[in-house]
Specification:
5-stranded parallel beta sheet; Rossmann fold; alpha/beta; 9 helices
């Protein structure tokens, strides 16, 4: 299965609950993959070539705040970055899925893919799950959690499909507008529908 949603809709909370309810679940986290890749020297070199030398510091480490400002302020640069990272993330996802299948460690494989629909990320999943909330809640969470100003919040949200546009292509929607207990109840109603 693929799990998606907009930034600050609650995908990480959903994954935590899923692991609590299904300890054997195998979850591939695309954001964690990107975070790791942004520290790989060869990847950093490719990003520097695509975005310019200002994205690295004197020690050759990626200046993530500079990258964030560049890519969320320019859709062409964002596509350049995605062209570098997305194939690598997809490759890691497919390898993790294959490894999980070989080891037979889990009957349930879930990939947490924030840009599932926007990026056309397909790894052969049978069902897409969406964690959804209102735009107002996303804005409030981004400001509170990340400390982003209004301009950065709007730039980040503008780089993703609005949550309401993700509802139609999703197979299952989990509405995350209330307390965590409400999201957990939705998950508990969903799990028995799986053939585990």
């Amino acid at each position: 299965m693929a799990l998606t949603g907009g930034i600050a809709t609650g995908k990480s909370t959903f994954c935590r609950m899923l692991r609590e309810e299904c300890p054997d679940v195998a979850v591939f986290d695309c954001d964690a993959s990107v975070d790791r890749l942004l520290g790989v020297p060869g990847v950093v070199d490719r990003i520097r070539e695509a975005l310019g030398s200002a994205v690295v510091d004197a020690e050759g480490r990626l200046r993530r705040d500079v990258v964030r400002t560049l890519v969320f302020g320019n859709s062409g640069r964002r596509r350049d970055l995605e062209a570098i990272l997305h194939p690598l993330v997809r490759e890691e996802c497919l390898e993790f899925k294959a490894q999980t299948a070989r080891q037979g460690v889990s009957p349930l494989f879930v990939a947490d893919v924030p840009l599932l629909f926007e990026g056309g990320f397909d790894y052969g999943h049978e069902k897409s799950l969406l964690v959804a909330t209102t735009r107002g809640t996303q804005v409030a969470r981004l400001k509170s959690r990340n400390g982003f100003d209004d301009m950065m919040v709007e730039a980040i949200l503008g780089a993703q499909w609005p949550v309401e546009d993700k509802i139609a292509p999703a197979d299952v929607v989990f509405w995350n507008e209330g307390p965590e207990s409400v999201l957990r109840r939705q998950l508990l109603r969903f799990l028995p529908t799986l053939d585990l």
